[in-house]
Design brief:
152 residues; mainly alpha; 70% helix; 5% strand
Length: 152
């Protein structure tokens, strides 16, 4: 067991175990040492970055070097459509590399160019979403990874 969630939190939100696992892995990256949790973590990180600021944000924060592991993770959880979009964005980055910026002002200026608008728009419309696929992927192990603590 990696972490726990309170019984009341689980009553209030049936997905509380999933979010507790995500929070735990974010706070303790070494917790994602087994292959299944590495895939879970890489797919979640990619999805969170893209949902927050698009592929530009993902590549600015993690570079192209981390994208192959995200691609494998998406494939592992059954996110084939998202994997195709990432592969396309990776190809675009290889053809026209975008250097990392040094400040928020520079990032804002870079974002105006809308380098990945097509990929981002398609990504935002894909169903099922990565978070739903992650929940299904990890569900068989979730009760072993995240326990339930009494509210006492």
């Amino acid at each position: 067991m990696l972490t726990t969630v309170s019984a009341s939190a689980l009553r209030d939100d049936p997905s509380a175990r999933l979010w507790a696992l995500i929070e735990h892995i974010a706070a303790h990256p070494a917790a994602a040492s087994d292959a299944e949790l590495q895939a879970f973590s890489a797919a979640y990180l990619y999805d969170a970055e893209v949902l927050n600021g698009g592929h530009l944000q993902y590549f600015q924060n993690h570079g192209l070097a981390h994208a192959p592991s995200a691609l494998l993770a998406l494939q592992a959880i059954g996110a084939a459509a998202q994997a195709r979009i990432l592969r396309e964005a990776m190809s675009a980055m290889r053809v026209s590399p975008i250097a990392a910026v040094g400040s928020l002002e520079d990032y804002a200026e870079l974002a105006k160019a809308d380098h990945f608008s097509e990929q981002d728009a398609r990504y935002y419309e894909v169903k099922p979403e990565v978070i739903d696929l992650l929940a299904s992927f990890i569900e068989p192990r979730l009760s072993n990874l995240v326990g339930v603590a009494s509210d006492a």
